């Protein structure tokens, strides 16, 4: 397969492996609503944030949507979009590599891009995701009015789509609901008891001997296939349609017969690659949506309309699935996913993660009625947690860094074991109980012994303290206890008898 080469390619294709692993630290004052809803807003470099998320969410994201900088030689208030071409490729490659690891087996990634980098992006995505995993390139009509300032006016952007497994994606993807315009073609001129329908021609081009029979209309008129055509179905299938009252000969009974297709039988429309602005929104609509929320003319330079993201999420996921956007910009993806009852993770590096993204999601939780809210019958609810990237968690040899605080590592261990956020205070070695298992961490003097190694070793005494603390959480608990510590001085037989599973730090802490 042909590959794209650029100045720093050799280093860039290895960049993801070299990204330091950092822990995520919640900023409670920016979290909002139901903090256990499973939604996250992360402020920080998206490459490092993706690396931090990978141990928890590898293989769990159903739909990834990203809207990266387009490299358009324009200066935007929120980020610098004027990247030299090599730097743009250097930025995209490692992020795409990490994003690939998040997809479920039937998951898909959708990338918005314009003509400046679309064709280069297609080549590197072929290499990262596999050329055979390319699904389609959709064309979104982002403008509805013409401009006369350029040689050829720009009216569209691309959506490059790749699947982890195209066959599984095909089975799991959803059809789109019919638009009002599509629904209008279904009528009921003969007052059929099954309601509105439309006629679908029974003739097809070509010649097949078993599909060249005569059809006799109720008024006696004989119909033969038009010149150069045959009927679409064999005679026995036609007879079945006739018996089901699903053949129409026109108001006077003389029209070429057509098959009746009932509106109630239509599950939806198979998506296709042309997305007109009437169906998927446009840029003016997107700007109005953000301005109505914040009342500013310069809130965000290049938002996407909620209807565009709604269409992507509708096709690529179902309620409860996880949606990820690592270039969240104005938080449209998270806002739409929230209204569509999907779980979501959004990452944004700029300060507008606090000044724009967090307030927008807060408004969504409170039930704001802009964008797709009415179409989705959104009334509010749910919540999210706000995170920032902490310091590097592990050194180059895989050892936990000395300045990592107990609550931060405890949250990491808890999240790693349970895939749920940690609500502890960090004042006890017993960090919680989840689904019949208790978890404890001996680290950084949690037992009050300030010596470097004091209290970090599992002994009979430290186990007694842990057991006492667990009983404070749930009186009478007698299930298994997973203990993380520097080492254990209890033998295997004793551990088994006490129903203890010991895991050594740092080796059993998922660093990468």
Topology:
Layout: H1 9-12, H2 15-18, E1 22-26, E2 32-33, E3 40-43, H3 46-57, E4 61-66, H4 85-102, E5 103-113, H5 118-129, E6 134-141, E7 156-163, H6 166-172, H7 180-183, E8 197-201, E9 203-205, E10 215-216, E11 222-223, E12 229-231, H8 235-243, E13 247-248, E14 258-262, E15 274-275, H9 277-280, H10 283-294, H11 306-316, E16 322-325, H12 332-339, E17 343-348, H13 352-365, E18 383-392, H14 406-418, E19 430-434, E20 437-441, E21 457-458, H15 460-473, E22 481-485, E23 487-488, H16 492-497, E24 500-504
Parallel strand pairs: 3-17, 3-18, 4-5, 4-16, 6-15, 16-17, 20-22, 21-23, 22-24
Antiparallel strand pairs: 1-18, 2-18, 5-7, 6-7, 8-14, 9-12, 10-11, 13-14, 19-20
Helix pairs in contact: 3-4, 4-5, 11-12, 12-13
In terms of structural class, how would the helical and strand content be classed? alpha/beta
Number of helices: 16
The rounded Rg comes to 29 Å
CATH architecture of the largest domain: 3-Layer(aba) Sandwich
Tally of separate domains: 3
CATH topology name of the largest domain, in short, is Rossmann fold
- The percentage helix is 25-40%
The CATH class of the largest domain, by name, is Alpha Beta
Mean pLDDT: 90
Largest sheet: 11 strands, mixed
Uncertain regions spanning at least 5 consecutive residues:
none
Assembly level: single chain
Distance between the termini: 30 Å
Overall geometry comes to: elongated
């Amino acid at each position: 397969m042909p590959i794209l080469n650029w100045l720093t390619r050799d280093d860039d294709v290895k960049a993801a492996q070299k990204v330091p692993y950092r822990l995520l630290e919640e900023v409670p004052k920016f979290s909002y609503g139901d903090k256990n809803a499973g939604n996250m807003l992360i402020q920080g470099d998206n490459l490092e944030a993706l690396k931090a998320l990978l141990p928890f969410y590898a293989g769990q994201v159903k739909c990834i949507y990203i809207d990266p900088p387009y490299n358009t030689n324009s200066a935007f208030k929120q980020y610098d979009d004027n990247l030299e071409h090599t730097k743009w490729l250097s930025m995209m490659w490692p992020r795409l590599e990490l994003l690939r690891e998040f997809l479920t087996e039937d998951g898909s990634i959708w990338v918005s891009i314009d003509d400046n980098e679309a064709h280069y992006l297609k080549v590197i995505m072929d290499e990262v995701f596999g050329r055979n995993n390319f699904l389609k390139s959709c064309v979104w009509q982002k403008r509805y009015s013409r401009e006369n300032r350029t040689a050829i006016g720009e009216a569209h952007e691309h959506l490059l789509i790749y699947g982890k497994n195209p066959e599984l994606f095909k089975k799991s993807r959803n059809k789109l609901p019919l638009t009002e315009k599509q629904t209008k073609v279904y009528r009921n001129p003969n007052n059929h008891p099954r309601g509105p329908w439309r006629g679908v021609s029974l003739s097809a081009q070509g010649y097949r001997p078993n599909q060249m029979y005569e059809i006799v209309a109720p008024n006696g008129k004989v119909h033969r296939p038009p010149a150069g055509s045959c009927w679409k179905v064999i005679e026995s299938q036609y007879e079945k349609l006739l018996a089901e009252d699903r053949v129409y000969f026109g108001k006077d009974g003389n029209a070429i017969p057509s098959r009746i297709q009932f509106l109630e039988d239509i599950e939806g429309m198979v998506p296709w690659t042309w997305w007109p602005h009437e169906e998927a929104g446009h840029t003016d609509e997107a700007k109005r949506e953000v301005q109505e929320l914040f009342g500013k003319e310069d809130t965000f330079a290049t938002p996407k309309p909620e209807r565009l993201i709604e269409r992507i999420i509708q096709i690529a996921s179902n309620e409860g699935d996880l949606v990820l956007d690592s270039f969240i910009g104005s938080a449209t993806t998270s806002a739409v996913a929230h209204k569509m009852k999907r779980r979501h993770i959004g990452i944004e590096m700029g300060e507008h993660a606090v000044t724009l993204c967090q307030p927008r999601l807060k408004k969504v939780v409170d039930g704001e009625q802009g964008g797709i809210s009415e179409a989705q019958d959104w009334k509010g609810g749910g919540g999210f947690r706000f995170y920032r990237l902490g310091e590097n968690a592990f050194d180059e040899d895989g050892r936990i860094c000395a300045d990592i605080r107990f609550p931060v590592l405890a949250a990491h261990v808890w999240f790693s074991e349970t895939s749920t956020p940690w609500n502890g205070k960090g004042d006890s070695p017993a960090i919680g109980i989840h689904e019949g298992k208790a978890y404890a961490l001996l680290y950084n003097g949690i037992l009050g012994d300030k010596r470097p190694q004091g209290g970090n070793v599992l002994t009979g005494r430290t186990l007694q303290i842990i057991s006492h603390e667990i009983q404070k959480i749930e009186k009478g608990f007698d299930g298994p206890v997973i203990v993380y510590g520097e080492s254990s001085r209890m033998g295997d037989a004793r551990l088994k008898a006490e129903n203890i599973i010991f895991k050594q730090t740092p080796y059993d802490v998922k660093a990468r």
